[in-house]
Amino acid sequence: MxxxxxxxxxxxxxxxxxxxxxAQEWGTVTGRxxxxxxxxxxxxxxxxxxxxxxxxxxxxxxxxxxxxxGVQDVAMWLFLDRGDKAPTPHPSYAEAAKKPVVVDNKxxxxxxxxxxxxxxxxxxxxxxxxxxxxxxxxxxxxxxMNNLVPVGGVFEHKFxxxxxxPMNASCSIHPWMAGKIIVxxxxxxxxxxxxxxxxxxxxxxxxxxLQVWHEIPGTIKEMNVxxxxxxxxxGLLEIEVKPGNNxxxxxxxxxxxxxxxx
Length: 262
Description:
The chain is mostly beta strands and 262 residues long. It is 12% helix and 44% strand.
């Protein structure tokens, strides 16, 4: 009887150890957002202030499509169903969270146009232009802010609550200026680069849901992933992360979805 109990105990320990090892496996998710069809032409913004520096017109930054069809500034973040608990992040994210995120004013545009950051992570709102700007940021979970940033100045801020969707950033002095700020509790998020590529490093192995968003349509309710059409009213993309690299390939977004409504 004692041997049997000991055997059961050993089996239990082995089982727990196996589960722990599995929980510590990680995978990196990569892919590329591309436009499916001809990119719409979006009129340039008319400049009404500080024309001598900003110029008479500036490209509208809401849609950026590269020569290879890659779509920039598509955002995605870990989505949790009600009652679900976010997975414990990989240890590497603890150090990354200590580094400030920089949002700069460059040539009368925000750089970057879309940025993601963690709750409580320091943001440095900078002004690299030779003219004053202000940062007006409006969210739902966080109190709004409206701060002047003089030439060469920096305003530091921390957002204390997660936002369900990106917050609007604007400049009251220069009304065409606009940007988006994503604030999440989980570090598992990404914003596509100039060529449309994205990387989410060290996700726990297992099944996850990612919410996909772009400024023009909001949540991307239709995508083509690996030749398969994905439709979801919340813009959710379900993936299974395996150890190592998980390349989702090209994720196609119909050009019609990226056409601004008149």
